[in-house]
Amino acid sequence: MPSATCQVCGGAVEEFLDLGRQPLSDNFPTARDIPHEFFYRLAVGMCGTCTMVQLMEQVPRERMFHYDYPYYSSGSSVMRAHFEGTARRFLDTELTGPDPFMVEIGSNDGVLLKTIHQANVRHVGFEPCGKVAETAASRGVRVLEEFFDADSAAAVRKSDGPADVIFAANTLCHIPYISSILEGVDALLAENGVFVFEDPYLGDIVTRTSFDQIYDEHFFLFTARAVATMAARFDLELVDVERLPVHGGEVRYTLARAGARKPTDAVAALIAEEHARRLADMQTLQRFAANTVRVRDDLVAVLRRLRAEGHEIVGYGATAKSATVTNFCGIGPDLVSYVCDTTPAKQGRFTPGTHIPVQPAESFGDPFPDFALLFAWNHADEIMAKEQEFRRAGGRWIRYVPDVHII
Questions:
Q1: Are 356 and 315 in contact (CB under 8 A)?
Q2: Could you list the residue range(s) of the whole structural domain that residue 134 is in?
């Protein structure tokens, strides 16, 4: 299999899954944009030295994270509650000193820092995507419209002093130049401060065959073992882990300066669990790849059968991860009539690569389709509670995580 160089340690990365030619997952083109779409090969492998799972190819960050980036964290009530609770937890624990300071990497629309701002705690969010940064600023959040790296972190240390908390949610896994990030953390973090980040967890991805968690923005797929090894290279230590139910299964990792804090029992327990599950074995990852192909074949077969029977199928949620599903499976407007989504910036455009029309959420019930392919499966409970009228009208959901089934 092809190999690449590990972005953490420089070791050889062995490929175990090729998801084919893929577009930018959050680039929803207009009809005029379609001929100019950017494509790359989406493949994933594991470093034989430090066990970090990562993409085989990088997409330039400016192509993914730009002024018109369309994802807004506040769009989900579940995520709003999650981040408000996270902020209050920091306020009750780490931000209790005389003049605490918090930094967020990838602060998006300010969904977390809004609560920090309302508590009159000094803060700054790094957010290079202009429109979402402007939304955060309108909520009173202090935002720097730039990428976090060693240089920008050092500049904040000089102007604002050390950070008691550096936080990142669904952001660190996006960043191939991880060395510069951790050098920035080292420059900015207070001596007893913490660097906390939460991202999709490889263990859950393997268990659920949620291969759509692999796309251009998710460069790394973390495990506790790989994070601990990575942290040690920068004189940091993994001192706590916490499993999270959001976004289809994540882990919150807490790093501190080496020796500054005693690791919790949860760290050793999760690493032992990963060892027992053989998450760092290539055979485990190759079985995951085989399961991915099986889900693809099953999903396409179901969609083709339903369409042959004359049923209308629409997609629910024009998510970034749905680009992986539609392009890997070859799902276009011949199988799915349209995808409904609540994000105005996506409406009236087309899904990346496969060019299924994206329509407003109101289209879903005008009239209801026979079947809805649930791309936003990580918000299934929230969506199904909202769309009970669809079920009462005889509609049925198509799910593909952990396997293809109709409910």
A1: yes
A2: 73-283
